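Structure first, sequence second, as always.
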């Protein structure tokens, strides 16, 4: 079972060794932005280690909101208050597994942890959705975990999961 620590200055050397060559933006975020966002309390990053203190992966969450039109409510069959247009959400900003540790179930373990954390946030402060911007290579993984396509842009597929459907 993996153990987490919140990212801090003491992790700089370990983070520099994180490998994610097939999705360089994931490693770049961890190495160049995650600590700054965490220290400013704009986004929270959890690092996950195995029993040998190897950095296996990480995820970063931040608070968000999403506009849900009547058409989207109907399409996804979401029961939501009719008089509201915007709903609280949590954004899964990044999730990554070091390339050396893939194929061992760690991605699913981290996603399950994301779900647990988000359910706790929703319980404490009220939140309806978990959102993310998926790289094309990861869409299947997210669909397997209950996310639905919400919209697309040039680089990403925006995906959404209603937290009470977990």
């Amino acid at each position: 079972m993996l153990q987490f620590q919140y990212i801090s200055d003491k992790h700089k050397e370990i983070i520099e060794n994180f490998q994610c060559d097939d999705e360089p933006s994931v490693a770049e975020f961890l190495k160049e932005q995650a600590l700054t966002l965490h220290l400013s309390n704009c986004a929270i990053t959890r690092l996950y280690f195995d029993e040998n203190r190897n950095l296996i992966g990480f995820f970063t969450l931040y608070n968000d909101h999403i506009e849900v039109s009547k058409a989207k409510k109907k399409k996804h069959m979401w029961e939501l208050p009719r008089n509201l247009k915007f709903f609280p959400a949590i954004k899964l900003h990044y999730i990554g597994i070091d390339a050396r540790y893939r194929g061992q179930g760690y991605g699913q373990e981290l996603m399950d942890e994301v779900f647990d954390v988000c359910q706790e946030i929703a319980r404490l402060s009220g939140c309806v959705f978990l959102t993310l911007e998926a790289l094309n290579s990861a869409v299947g993984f997210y669909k397997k975990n209950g996310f639905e396509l919400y919209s697309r842009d040039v680089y990403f597929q925006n995906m959404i999961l209603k937290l009470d459907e977990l």
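Margin note: The mean pLDDT is 95.
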